[in-house]
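Format notes (please read before filing issues)

Several people have asked whether sequences and structure tokens are stored in separate files. They are not. Every record keeps both together, in the order shown below: the sequence lines, then the token lines. Line labels are part of the format and must not be stripped during preprocessing.
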Amino acid sequence: MSVSLHTPQLSSDNQDWVVPTMQMHRRLLMVAAIFAVGLQSVPLSAAELTGTHNDWKTYRHGNGRELMCFAVSAAQEQQPSGAGRQTPHVYVTAWPKQGVRAEISVLLGFDVKPNSDITVDVGGSSFKLFADGDRAFVGDKGDEEQLLAAMRRGLKMTIEATPAKGGSSKDVYSLSGVTASVQAITAGCS
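Then the structure lines:
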């Protein structure tokens, strides 16, 4: 499988806050590329499984300034499913030496239609994400903190997006274990 890392082209309608976060997103893209084939195929030397918290798993990778920890969960329901689509995953990542405590991202498993919305619903609270290829990110730190708080309170999370090839997608994630997982990556990565 070939994964290309690139800097997204920012249009004039993008918000100014997107630009400073792109360095963190490129790092997350590299990590997500490692795990894109599925958690079962990751060599133990790439990341260390540090825990399982119900439907979420936590990992640790690197050391020193490059130390990062992340929590990940696969979608329990996905539409469409089947050929050509990777299993979607949600990540919460921490890079403590760089001041990142809990960055949320999503591997959608397909490229997103340009200028289309990606929406997240947790218990009736709705959030917008922006796309970079087949990944999605929260662009604003305040929104990210609100989404993480909603995830900690919620039972399930639904993410809807429009694939570049048309149609629609709807993925449902269990949030059982997300609180313990975020606590574990914060404590285990300090």
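For reference, the curators noted about this record: Confidence is low (pLDDT under 50) at residues 1-24, 29-44. The longest helix spans residues 18-35.
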